[in-house]
Amino acid sequence: MKKPENILNQLSPTYFWDVDYSKLDPIKSKRLIIERIITLGTVDEIFALIKYYGEEEVKGTILALNYLDPKTLNFFAFYFQIQRTSFKCYTSKRLSQQHWNS
């Protein structure tokens, strides 16, 4: 299967406010791109991400992230049919929860 020219053409640059978007490399910055899109992106952007990188690559990156908000964690646990305990962010939760999450 041929990959699209560049995944960045399908994503909003507003997700990458803290980096030079014009210098962002889809391969070298894969983890950053995946993390931003799964937490901030639309469903269409998430599916474009999975199509570009492949389901296993996206799943592996998500499993290794240090933090995911509870809704995002539950969505991808359901979507990929993975136990929440398999996610690094689930097994290494913060010792003290932030006050607005209580």
Q: In words, what does this structure look like?
A:
- Helices cover 45% and strands 0% of the residues.
- It contains 5 helices and no strands.
- The longest helix is centred in the middle third of the chain and has 11 residues, at 30-40.
How would the blueprint of this fold be written?
Layout: H1 30-40, H2 43-53, H3 55-64, H4 70-79, H5 88-91
Summarize the structure in short:
The protein has one domain.
Give, in order, the helices and strands: HHHHH
Give me the secondary-structure category. mainly alpha
What is the number of E strands? 0
Number of domains: 1
Rg, Å, rounded: 14 Å
For the largest beta-sheet, the strand count, sense and barrel status come to: none
Low-confidence stretches: none
Observed structural traits:
mainly alpha, 102 residues, globular
